[in-house]
Design goal:
13 helices; about 280 residues; mainly alpha
Length: about 280
Amino acid sequence: MLHLMLHAFEHALVDGLKLLPFLFVTYFAMEWLEHKAGDKVNKLVSGAGKWGPFAGGLLGVVPQCGFSAAASNLFAGRVITIGTLLAIYLSTSDEMLPILISQRVSVWLIIRILLIKIVIGVMAGFVIDQIFRSRQPEHGHIHEICEHEHCGCHKGILRSAMIHTFKIAFFILLIGFFLEFIFEVVGEESLSLLILNRPVLGPVLAGVVGLIPNCASSVAITELYLEGALGMGAMIAGLLVNAGVGLLVLFKVNHETKENLTILGLLYLIGVISGIVISLIGG
């Protein structure tokens, strides 16, 4: 058993070290984009009016620090609609994008995943706004959008990029070690069959993981997909549901608990149903 653990750790460590330079370059670029365009993106979404879900779904995939948290604050201040908020939650990719880029995954696969998230986010956002038509936004107080632990807005680009890089590399090491150990004990093929060929169970379980308001959840979902333990449908379900720290901020700043639970339920249902559909059509 000890031999298996050491072998798994060695394998995970080597893979993790290979990713470090790619992760750093990716996060440095993301931090630069956040500092240059973050405020403009927030203003664009808040001023989009009835086209909010379109703007939110499209801009939600932009890799920047704390956009889902900013959206939660904008919603709590009654600046954007429920549909716009959900469009942003559904399209935001948290740690998925830097991991796929650092793993040198096919550009077309990355574009496909992002397009799926955008389309689902925009469509769901418009439908939800039609259902909750009476809840139109009113201009009110907007909370500070850079007050949560995930955002490195005030730490400087280089330092923030380094913090993100080592933080995610640590999670990748832990998850990689866990996967390698399980693969050694159970067998990669057996483990994959537990979830990969379950068009309903896979998205349901991945959606539960996606609800965890921590970057580790999106790291785990992406890594499981890359290792072949999750199918496309299950991965999409988990990543749609995963809104980074957005949900945490929502429950903190919006005091309408029933409304928050409704948003949480809608996010989970949309993500899981979308994942099941993609699994059934062979996505």
